[in-house]
Amino acid sequence: MSISQKLSPFHHTLSLSLETFTVNASKVSLHLHLRMSESAAAENGYISLSEFSTMEATTMSQSDKTSENGLNFKATELRLGLPGSESPEPVDERFLPLKSGAKRVFSDAVNGSNKWVFSPGSANDAGSGSGSVKDHKPGVPVKEKNSSAAAAPASKAQVVGWPPIRSFRKNTMASSQTQKQGGDNNNSNNKAEAKSGPELCLYVKVSMEGAPYLRKIDLKTYKSYVELSYALEKMFSCFTLGQFGSHGGCGRDGLNESRLTDLLRGSEYVVTYEDKDSDWMLVGDVPWEMFICSCKKLRIMKSSEAIGLAPRVMEKCKSKNQ
Amino acid sequence: MDRRFPFKVLEHIFSFLDANEDRNSVSLVCKSWFETERRTRKRVFVGNCYAVNPLKVARRFPKMRSLTLKGKPHFADYNLVPDGWGGYAWPWIEAMAARRPLLEEIRLKRMVVTDECLEKIAASFRDFKTLVLTSCEGFSTDGIAAIASTCRKLRDLELRECNVDDLGGDWLSYFPETSTSLVSLDFSCLDSEIKLSDLERLLSRSPNLKSLKLNRSVTLDVLEGLLRRAPQLVELGTGSFSDELDPEEISKLTKALSELKQLKSLSGLWDLLPEYIPVLYSVCPRLTSLNLSYATVQMPDLVDLLSRCSKLQKLWVMDMIEDKGLKTVALCCKELRELRVFPSGADLDEEDVALTEQGLVSVSEGCKKLESVLYFCVQFTNAALVTIAKNRPNFRCFRLCVMEPFAPDYRTQQPLDEGFKAIVERCKDLRRLSVSGLLTDKAFEYIGVHAKKLRMLSIAFAGDSDLMLHHLLSGCESLKKLEIRDCPFGDTALLENAAKLETMRSLWMSSCFVSFGACKQLSQKMPRLNVEVIDEHPPKTRPDSSPVERIYIYRTVAGPRQDTPEFVWTIHKNPEVGVSRLSTR
């Protein structure tokens, strides 16, 4: 399970590239073309959207194609259509004219009510909810145009690595915004202050005894200790060689106890974190929400070294487990 | 008559050649020129650490004193390359330590550097002077301590945006107790607090220190004391600029800053509070470089500061500067050569966006020496791009990031093809270009036709078809690095232009429509390319038609690398062997 995959349930999904976008007095026409080999399309059981266009747009795109000889586009081009339909049908509202100047939302997220959502290949993407999800998906960018600007903030999803800002800068801005929120309100004219929250990432470094390099993870992509522990295990399993517990493979089903308490109980390694007061604490004690607010850094260390840590917490765990 | 120049004469002539491009050309002329050049090259640059074997490099350049290496693809900066991909510095350090113990400078970018590497450097190169690590990871402050304590002639220690395992602040105390030869020290990327007394003492015994970049944990109240100990600074990166100071402290700090008579570059300024702007007034008139990209101050305060910086050549700032602020820059900073405007993360959905294309237009009008731009903006127009191109045909680097993917010209709803056409047509010296917004294949046709000096091109969410890639690969003669994400093309253009790839350093494509079969074909066709498939969600079976998540193709004389992680497949040259590691899935 990779870091980037965890960033958003809708990440790396598919977008349709816009070929022509013409505006005339009455209508906006959209051309949605999906390029893909037809065998792969059949294999994936494509559910596709119908394509619609004004006459002029169609002619335009046709002539574009015929002028491009040498590269056989027709053969590789797949037109979109609703299941079972051959001819273009009126498409639903999402693709109707945008007012010029209306904010367009780039949204990978198409929620479960829409049937044509594609998700990247992985069984881990439980959130997508589409029956047509297969294991290997093309890396097709999907674009949904949302005609109602009001819906924009809600459906705004995050794309990996976009906009292209270095993580160092992202992390710096993220932490300065959370600092400002916690502090006084003297800088109330600072716009940036009000805008932190769900869109920000909470990158923390994760290091481990004996590992040659650090990882960084975004705590906001996990919703519970279970998810976090699974991700950590996956990330560092090559170093522990199964010491994170012999329950390596069976973790996908729902667990009764948090895996972290399993870790704390039995194995050689424990997960600790540095909190806002620069104290090192054992992970798993406080409620998840509180944890992500106060965690600055994670470190996986040997149990023997963790004994001096927050003994109260250790005892608390012991008493829980007995 | 022996028409060849004597070796000594050639050697003398070649000693005037600094640029490695020139040296590379010279070494192709004939064997004796190759030999002479290689014996005289002191600064070695390897743009892709996997393009060549480290031992071969060590053997070829016996007088090597400086080594610069780059590892991961550029898009690793934006989390598009999974951790563990590669770029390990160790084989290089090991090779150099064994054969080139007189090496003095090592500069690494986007590589994995371990504490072991740093310890090896410290132990092996007795005259070691310069260590610059940019966007590197894998080491801790222990490794830095090793360098500090052992490299007695250390001049430069710069950690630029590295991911360091910060085990605490006492590495500073490891520098030699007697005076140090430090000229530049940059630890701005470290998290933890350092011991103030260690730093103060270090400054007191480093009379040659010209560049000091503190980390954020150094608070404002201690800055004055540090500056008093280093009044000769030319470059200063402050720590956090937001603590409460009483009037006396403010006045002392102002005085200390005004004593920095040689200060030309200022950065840091984390969380700069508006009330401290006057403190900086005294240094402004001399500044040639100002990095305000972490200073969260609003436009009026920025204008207040920038209107005093008449000598400014390089400005990094956030979009809080707004169009109005950039107008001031256009008026006051006539020497400006480089401008970067970063997004502050303010909500993009607001109707009244204060930083628009107008800001860049103003700067392009007013700043006649402007040649390098990085501009993040919500939306743009063709008209603005045309105007900018007309104003500034001297652009060498133009990177525009319209943050809304597929955003057209917001006035005309047209793609931004015509705008970028103007840029590449007029800016004949353009070396680096990043495009964004709604772009059709036409835009890339223009780029292919006009951008003859373009070396690096970055593309995201653009184009319609394979034609786009075809235009670029068949048109851009000087293209060396091409990186593409989320564009709708794949196999055809890639295979038709395979030969071009050997003239380039690398090609990165992610979330495009490249099939596994095409990768195999390309690899078989071009044995001197490494075709690496990066796939974190590999399918159970991999038929030829299945698409791949990411590919990274680069020319190499070192063959497929041996250190690929499990999610990277290098296609074997021998088709019978197939793809390495396929069977583990």
From TrEMBL, chain A:
UniProt keyword Nucleus, yes or no: yes
Domain (PB1): residue spans on this chain: 201-303
Annotated compartments: Nucleus
GO CC entries: nucleus
Residue ranges, compositional bias (Polar residues): 171-184
Keywords linked to the UniProt accession: Auxin signaling pathway, Nucleus, Repressor, Transcription, Transcription regulation
InterPro entries the record matches: AUX/IAA_dom, AUX_IAA, PB1-like
Sequence ranges of Basic and acidic residues compositional bias: 133-146
Region (Disordered): 123-157, 171-193
Biased composition range(s): Low complexity: 147-157
UniProt record, GO biological process: auxin-activated signaling pathway
Primary residence: nucleus
A Pfam family it matches: AUX_IAA
UniProt keyword annotation of Repressor present: yes
Subunit structure: Homodimers and heterodimers.
Primary role: Aux/IAA proteins are short-lived transcriptional factors that function as repressors of early auxin response genes at low auxin concentrations.
Family affiliation: Belongs to the Aux/IAA family.
Protein name: Auxin-responsive protein
The species this protein was found in: Eruca vesicaria subsp. sativa
From TrEMBL, chain B:
SMART domains in alphabetical order: FBOX, LRR_CC
Predominant location: nucleus
Protein name: F-box domain-containing protein
A Pfam family this chain is assigned to: F-box_5
Species assigned in the record: Eruca vesicaria subsp. sativa (Garden rocket)
Any GO CC annotation of this UniProt entry: nucleus
Keyword annotations: Auxin signaling pathway, Developmental protein, Nucleus, Ubl conjugation pathway
Entry GO MF terms: auxin binding
Lineage: Eukaryota, Viridiplantae, Streptophyta, Embryophyta, Tracheophyta
PANTHER family, sorted: F-BOX DOMAIN-CONTAINING PROTEIN (PTHR16134:SF109), F-BOX/TPR REPEAT PROTEIN POF3 (PTHR16134)
Protein localization: Nucleus
